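We modelled the chain as a single entity of 243 amino acids. Its sequence is:
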Amino acid sequence: MISIVCVYNNKRLLETSLLKSMESQKLSYELILLDNTHKKFNSAAMALNHGVKNAKGNYLMFIHQDYDLESNVWLSKVEKLLDGLDNMGVAGVAGKYNRNLISNIKTGTPPTLAGPIQIDKPVKVQTLDECLFIIPKKVFEEIQLDEEVCDNWHLYAADYCLSAKKAGYDVYVLPLGGYHESPGYSFSSDQYYSTLKKLVKKHKHDYDWIFTSTGSWSTKYPLFLQIFYQKIYYFLRLDKIKF
């Protein structure tokens, strides 16, 4: 069984996106909803670690409130895929092993493919996007989400993937679709860069590069210069989109 864990701060969005797509699923599941409309939790890692304490599923699926599975057999397909993966530490629907994002999902308005590479079988990657990722319960009992490094709402899946790989597990992107309403931009958030700095510090001795869905970061070159150029690129991209 899959335990689906979602922390939300917008009940309307939760109901019209995630919950609506869950109602028609053919496979039974456990749903764990964490209400953060009153800011009970300071971070995603804190909320999700709390949410899975009494989870009953063999797999823990962490998902955003604005994600639509778009298929009534989505859970059936994902469980079959997960059962067939060797040494799986984490699996998701969007991720990177180099600078190119691998994903079959669509994001934003109007919906567009999240990345340039689509797949028809599971592919090993370095990190996953936070919109949807799945961890075997037995792995999560060994490694929890890092509430100190990820003390806000950014990069907690990326950090988990890097820790899981260091522990000897593999990270996979699954050939499954879906729709994530948010385009996932984080470059305007000071919290994103605060977490990024701690992420690089934590993993710099194990990885020369950290590839995330929101940027590719060298652990060998000054991070402040990389952030500076990334911000310039981001704002130029926004101008291009705007005009």
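As a brief sanity check on the tokenised model: The helical segments are 11-22, 44-51, 74-83, 137-142, 156-166, 190-203, 223-242. Residues 2-184 form a domain with the Spore Coat Polysaccharide Biosynthesis Protein SpsA; Chain A fold (CATH 3.90.550.10).
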